[in-house]
Design a protein that fits this description.
The chain is an alpha+beta fold. The protein has one domain. Helix content is 35%, strand content 13%. A 6-stranded antiparallel β-sheet has the order 1-2-3-4-5-6. The chain is elongated and about 80 Å long.
Length: 253
């Protein structure tokens, strides 16, 4: 008896469309997660690189003058919040930063910087432009932008290893490229007299300067609450501290 049953080869159009639809749904669900992981990995690499570069640059400065206390460096001897905008002080700072960092272009504090981005906080509000306009700004050969400025009080508590803050750094790890947002590509550090970098809003700095520095872990406005990944209502100013204190991990969205 001849078998009249024919084997079906291939798929119908409807089956192909259903399969494509399922793949599309899976891709739509997983792509944002993968994209976010990639962005976090890139940001983390940039934060670590900036941290290392600033440390190395000032280590070379200290070695060149054979000094332990960074505040005794010649570049900082005449630099105070009151004199920071003086032309002579800015010129000296500019020369030193160009010497020890790979600066390809710079703008002195108070000088117009048409290339400098406009920054926003995590919550979408515009960040205070004054803190960038009145900072020394340096564009590095790898695309990063350094903003260096001073604000008081400079002297810290004698009870901690931080005796004074020499300068503050804002670092845009990908320069003029977006998102130009605090906690995403804009991060901040404080340079202490011992040559070490500390994160603003971090525990060390808040203990050294309790009157002027807030600890992110106790104030959710800096980078959300420690156990909460949602930081959309924060400024993002405390996210550098959150990342470093979380063993160099980005645990927020």
């Amino acid at each position: 008896m001849k078998n009249t049953t024919k084997s079906r080869i291939g798929y119908t159009l409807s089956e192909v469309l259903v399969t494509i639809g399922i793949i599309g749904v899976i891709a739509a669900l997983t792509l944002p997660i993968l994209t976010n992981k990639h962005q976090n990995a890139v940001a983390l690499a940039g934060i670590k690189l900036a941290y290392a570069k600033i440390n190395d640059g000032f280590l070379m400065m200290r070695s060149s003058e054979n000094l332990d206390d960074l505040s005794n460096l010649s570049v900082f001897q005449t630099m105070t919040p009151e004199t920071f905008l003086d032309e002579r002080v800015q010129t000296n700072l500019d020369n030193q930063m160009r010497k020890y960092f790979n600066i390809v272009k710079s703008y002195k504090a108070g000088e117009a910087c048409p290339e400098c981005p406009v920054y926003v906080k995590m919550n979408g509000e515009l960040a205070d432009g004054g803190q960038y306009d009145y900072a020394w700004r340096g564009f590095l050969n790898d695309g990063m932008i350094y903003y260096m400025h001073l604000n008081g009080p400079q002297n810290a508590s004698n009870k901690t290893k931080i005796k004074s803050i020499v300068a503050y750094f804002f670092v845009d790890i990908n320069g003029v490229k977006p998102p130009n947002k605090w906690g995403k590509d804009m991060f901040q550090y404080a340079l202490a007299q011992n040559g070490l970098l500390y994160s603003a809003w971090g525990k060390d700095l808040s203990e050294a300067m309790p009157q002027s520095q807030t600890y992110w872990g106790e104030d959710s406005s800096g980078c959300g609450a420690p156990a909460n990944k949602d930081v959309s209502r924060s400024t993002g100013y405390g996210c550098t501290a959150r990342i470093i204190e979380n063993s160099w991990k980005i645990d927020y969205n």
